[in-house]
């Protein structure tokens, strides 16, 4: 009875296994950050633990109680509740444990997650229970002040991230527990003493005694030596590694950290920086310190291998690795011998290099930039606050959203098939009730519950009116022309029984009424004819001199009325927000989801998009327009554009962020902005929805959020079948996949449960008791509640506030109450964070390098203040992004990523075999079955796998092909084809839907009965140091798997076949890291600055802020391309203001502006959009055939091969129609749907450029793909008129040719008819009148160039200027030197295994590790002048001309000077063009010169004859003319 117990809860497990209701039944819960703990309650005075709402009390053994307590997992703690005092202590003790054990055993029967935890995690609990409290006699006298200062020092230096206290009182002693969170785990300290402060200090002293740090390389080496002497031989390899890399190691970054979580086992971390690479080795729990050090050292060597691209099974050779690293950092020479002819060079020197001209132009540019800066500041200030006349509620004014649930029987506008049928209907009242006063509502519910379709409709239909409460100012009547008032108007009422009567009596009555009106009857007689007046909002058109009468225009119907009596019929209009009907915006992460949901909801309401329901995606929108309210579905990007152009979201009052679990970059960005808007607009309502939502992250981030849960789970049971189950035994490749997966788990250390983070939820009773006791005991906490309540709950008492709101209050103040030093500690920026920021900034800027060298001279160690002083001195804001609410986690890499082409085959083999084995089950349905056959949904990582599997299933050699209808769901597929996924298959066939993650949640395939989950996804990653973005194939997280399972079981019981083991599933993290932590932040930072915010402050406010390295890399990139002027705060430049409006990364936006200057905007836009994907098929099986087709277009550039193919496609599409274009694509193995999509995107992008003011509208004529299709339809009709009589084909049916030619409007029926008839022209076989070879020869010529290709490649190089490589040899199979080290050319490139003249320079779009070595893809060969003019993100021109710190220009001084002048002209011209877009007259004159000069440069570089007229203009142009 003297043992102390604690129950631990694991978020990942708990979120998976239990519903919110089940958690509440299990136990009340309190939260702390990272790893929580509850007060340890001795059983001598109180029961150890109890579980509420258990059906009956049962006894259990001590072992079962211990296992039951431990099984609730790591992460959170359960609070202990009291049981009846009448029972004996031992009975209460056993009863509590018994309830826990029984409840867990029930759940464990259906959850392998819990079963595994019960088996493996008792040891952690034993360690915790074995702890003994530190007493005053255990430490030297006066430890208190010392240990407090030591803790603060450790927190400031970043050794301790945060700490949390909890305590209980027993007898005369206060028992205090402290949890210190470090970057390698938690440390728990336990102290007991009569004095509270002393017990606190004793706990801290015990915890800090379990933390050991080594900061010097010599100290680390000594620790490794001791571990080696203890028999751990691995340490010798670590010592050899340090010795080999002694020249490359940043000795100041080398450190070791050792902790004892509970005072028994050890964990260690070893880290150092090698040439900018941070290598960290970590150990698991070990019995001894030496063992932990050895394990961390072994992991360090393994991580070093991975970072250097050394295979895990390669020999241990640190000296060779060090030499390789040195070689990677070697300098390369760029030999420039040609820069035009000598005559051309002389012309350029005459135009560009005159000192007096350059000085005058620089002065003019400086003045123009200053003018433009003032314009931009003025525009920004206009959007800071809403118009005062709108009267938006804020401060202590409360906006109440009055509602009334509409009965189902009265909803005639909704279809019976959906009314009351979905789980979301059960929370209909809860949603409206929550939105009545709460600004933010979090909706968590399972897939298929109807969140996306039903909840927006409930919010629309159940709204009644807005009411203002609190401090509401009295409305004042203002009679001003253009102002708004309310005017009463009484509708005429005819006496009952007389309405509609005709004949003489009715005519006589009408005459009498007219006569009475002419004579002017008295008021009482008038009221007999008119009903009670109603009030209508009107605009004032006229006010008479004495203000007694006005003329108005009614907002509804826009009727006008004059001589309205002010005293009798006019009153002040309520504020704009109170008059507004529901205007709901629902965001989706994908275009297809937004359009599909809008069409579905319209269907449910017997309508089409365009009335109550609309949608808006880039390039396609249907505006919702209805007086009673609207719902608009859109992508998150559309919401962001609206937030930027309309920062207060005037015109919207409800924003729903759907699928927020995706944590996309734009979603997090929108959350930060919406949080700011909600603080200024009390009427704005924000709803966050997801099926796998991390509630606590958002509750903590959005104060006062209300949580509503939709009943979760599939509507029918779903059976889970994993790769090791009996079903897969008959499939050959399954055993191979299992073996490779097991080996990968071992290498990656995945034989454990997935990573988790905190989750907090407590029962309502416990929360209220907790708050009441704290307010009574502590005046500071009481004052905090008063302030908190006034801000969020209109000053209400805790009893009048929801439990969710009280839970937020507890989370905000902490379990132990508000500590005096807590706020101070949280505001401190860690030393490591500041050091990382300064290190990153100085690595990107030569100026800052010099400044830091001067600042740090004579100093060996630096404090927080030193770094802050330096940042302030240089006018920079410190980044405070260390306040992430949960640890940054990394996705588990797929074992086959190094050789995807070969390793994906067995997965596709198993997927194909599974489909062919299970589809027959679906065909076995009863004739009267309402559901029908159903469908199979297959989740694949990307388009390459979708295309490959579709080809296999549809192949003539597949005996099952006739029974399968394959539908592809992907962004590359045409919208009309994707709609087929929602249609039933023909009789006797089974629909097989092949999709990526889009079908997890955004798109619902209602009839899916079987799900096949490959477990793989494509995830965007970004290397901030190398500035390389990539799409990597990784294992999906557990939340993805749960979503995928939920797709089955919607219409009847289903199955999910997972092509991976249960062991792997358990080892996967619950969710991926937010995109903000793994992407290029340049575009995000630019958008932030465009809003007048400092990214270092703004992005730190994200729920999970990015890393400082990524932040500073983004700011350095924006500074390098002259998009911003960095500082505190950063300022937007003219170029930055322009490219912030393009849907491109900033450097790609700059390249597009450059293409416009060179007068090749269309091909530049196309090349930028093609990127590294191109247009050719991604077939894995036919990769060699695809490469041959690709080479028929271009043999030296992957980008130009795709560009030439794309431009040829557009020409064929315009001139010959879609059917010919589709046949052409099939012949050349080009992705038809991607080409169509690119055509639309290119046109939309050029429209954006045109709207920015730098492109004439005339240049876009003939580029609209929709216009091409319409013209095809008209041409088809004309051909039908001329067709032979009696013959079906192009012209339609017999005798209908003339009618077809007169058809102007293109209906769906015409399109379908055209597709059916035209498609037959190019059927392969005997009926084809023209062979493929003949007509293809007419439209295609090998290696046919597009205009100005050399310039295009140069401009495209400027979009990724740091992605340069040099090949010293003559064979492209040799290794190339890049800024990131040695790399090989990808085998799928047209340049692979070719012979070229040495040396050669190359540009690439992508670089990643494949088959153990770095490979570059999307490669184009460059000429030296292209590298010199367009290459390099940073150019050092003071002494020798150098690009990005490793490319040295070797040329004559004259030619080097000319290169510098041309690069300067290019940068200046872009700026002039951006300023000219704002009608700046001086800039317009400069742009005329720049375009003339760029035309001349193009002719010189393309080796064309110089235009003499243009040259004369440039020679006669003088600066002083400005």
Question: Brief description of this entry?
Answer:
This protein is of the alpha/beta class.
What does this structure look like?
The protein contains 56 helices and 48 strands. The strands form 12 sheets. It has an 8-stranded mixed sheet, sandwiched between helices. Strands 43-44-41-40-39-42-45 form a 7-stranded mixed sheet. It has a 6-stranded parallel sheet with strand order 29-36-33-30-32-31, with helices on both faces. Helix content is 43%, strand content 16%. It is of the alpha/beta class and 1522 residues long. The longest helix has 28 residues, at 355-382. The chain is globular and about 105 Å long. A hairpin with a 2-residue loop joins strand 11 (267-274) and strand 12.
